[in-house]
Amino acid sequence: MKRTTIIESIIFLYAILLLYTGISKLIDYTVFKESIAHSPILAPVATPIAWGLPWVEFLVTLMLIIPRWRLKGLYASLILMIVFTGYVTGILLFDKNLPCSCGGVLQQLTWPQHIAFNTAYILLSVWAILLQRRENKVQKLNWTNQYSITNPQF
Question: Is 0.90 topped by the overall pTM?
Answer without folding.
Answer: no
